[in-house]
Design brief:
alpha/beta, three-stranded parallel β-sheet
């Protein structure tokens, strides 16, 4: 099972929206994930603790916050623009061997 950190400024509103959309899409694809929801300020510690396969921030996040971990911007889950493409990118990253 892959682990994904989904984060936002407060760790509640926009990350909850993103998590719902991501998990619904991946469930439909037969892909199960473990989600770690947190604030931007908690990403570094959660990354070192959970060793995620992907980080999805719903806003600006320092690029070097978790070296070696792919980051896909989750802004489309808030705006609705580019959402399908973002979901496809997430699936691609999580299904790579």
């Amino acid at each position: 099972m892959k682990t994904v950190i989904v984060c936002c400024g407060s760790s509640m509103i926009t990350s909850s929206v993103a998590i719902k959309k991501i998990t619904e899409y991946l469930d439909a694809q037969g892909i199960k994930i473990k989600v770690i929801q947190c604030k931007f300020s908690e990403v570094a510690s959660n990354a070192s603790m959970y060793h995620p396969d992907l980080i999805v921030p719903t806003g600006p996040l320092k690029a070097d916050i978790a070296p070696g971990v792919p980051v896909i911007k989750g802004t489309p889950f808030v705006t609705g623009v580019g959402e399908k493409e973002t979901l496809e990118k997430i699936k691609e990253v999580l299904t790579q061997e």
